[in-house]
Amino acid sequence: MRLKTYEYIGLLIGLFIALEPSYIHPDEHFQTLEPILQWWSGYKGTIAWEFLPENASRSITILKLYYTPMLWLNDYLFHLKPVGLLYLYRIQNYLLYTVIASLFLEFCEVSITHKTKAKFFIRTSYVTWVFQSHTFSNSLETILLLLLLFVCQYCIYEVRSGKSPSFITSFWIGALISIGIFNRMTFPAFLVLPLLSVFYHCFISHWLPLAFSVISASVVSAIIIFFDTKAYNPVNGEWIIAPWNNLVYNMNVDNIAQHGLHPRYTHLLVNLPLLCGPVLILLLSKRYILKLPALSALSGVLILSLFKHQELRFLVPIVPAICASINLESFDTFIQGEVILTIWFIFNIVMGLLLGVFHQAGIISLISQFSSHDIPVHVWWKTYSPPTWIYANYNLTVSTTNFVDNIEYVENVNWNVTSNHVVDLKGSDVELLNETLTNFIKFTDSIQLILPNTVMEQLEPLRKEWNFTVDRETSQHLDLDHIDFPRWKTMKPGLKLLNVSHIIS
Question: Where does the chain cross the membrane (predicted)?
Answer without folding.
Answer: 94-113, 171-200, 207-227, 265-284, 339-358
